[in-house]
Amino acid sequence: MKYYKFIDDETDPLIPLFNSDRVLSYLKFKAGIPFNYLDDLKFILKNMLGTISYKDFDYIGGWSPQLSNNISRKSIETKARFYFYDENREVNVSPIALESIRRIFSLSSSVQVIVINTPKHKIFRQHVPKKIKQKYDSIIENAIDNGQIQYIDYSDFVLNDINFYDGDHLNKSGSDIFSKTLSSDIKKSFLKKQN
Predict the structure, then answer these.
(1) 160 lies in a domain?
(2) Does this model's pTM top 0.85?
(3) Residue 23: inside a domain
(4) Whole domain around residue 102: which residue ranges?
(5) Helix count (H) and strand count (E) of the chain?
(6) Are residues 107 and 165 in the same domain?
(7) Pick the residue with more confidence: 93 or 180?
(8) Which contiguous run of DSSP H or E holds residue 79?
(9) Using one digit for the tens of pLDDT, what is the confidence trace for 48-67?
(10) Are residues 78 and 34 in the same domain?
(11) Strand pairing partners for 178?
């Protein structure tokens, strides 16, 4: 499974100038410096022709089932610090994340948007800064009130430590358990709406 991004000419200016992702993207996609010759041949040619665009590199990562887990208080706290803190200061809510959410919710005029807050380990949930949690809750409540989304919150879905890969991802056994519940709940929701 691939992760697709919402970074384009409109949101590009929101990325901090010296962010490592911006620097690597610039080196790879603007300056044409290849990091993997075979995979990047298309990018090199398009860059030489001056026709490269954001649409040419449409995903930024991926997912594959994890069989193990990396659960310890220290590893979960380290990951939470990576997400939410910069040099021990809480980070602000990302304008890129807000723009991405706005764009997803704007799809509601043509498709039903269901937002699912997936299971998080209890230690990870404790480390989400209050201002980020409040901003997230406010955006979700507003979208629900405006009829833009259906929201299902499983952030505190009860699982054992052995079912987590890390603080905010499930491993294969956890995803199997969660997927059954999610599938059942979505089916019930759609049946209720049809009746």
Answers:
(1) yes
(2) no
(3) yes
(4) 73-194
(5) 7, 8
(6) yes
(7) 180
(8) helix 73-84
(9) 787 766 555 544 555 667 88
(10) no
(11) none
The separation between CA 121 and the C-alpha centre of its own chain, rounded to angstroms, equals 16
- The mean pLDDT value for 158-165 works out to 94
Phi, psi (rounded to 5 degrees) for 194: -75, -25
**What six digits make up the tokens of 99?**
């723009």
Nearest to 167 by CA among 122, 128, 129, 117: 122
Residue finishing a domain among 62, 87, 114: 62
Tokens standing for residue 80: 């939470």
The Cα-based distances of 55 to 5, 43, 59, 89, 140 in angstroms read: 10, 11, 9, 35, 29
Closest CA relative to residue 102, chosen from 146, 68, 69: 146
On whether residue 182 sits in a domain, the answer given is: yes
Query: What is the per-residue DSSP string for 52-71?
Result: --GGGS-EEEE-----S---
Same-domain pairing of 55 and 146: no
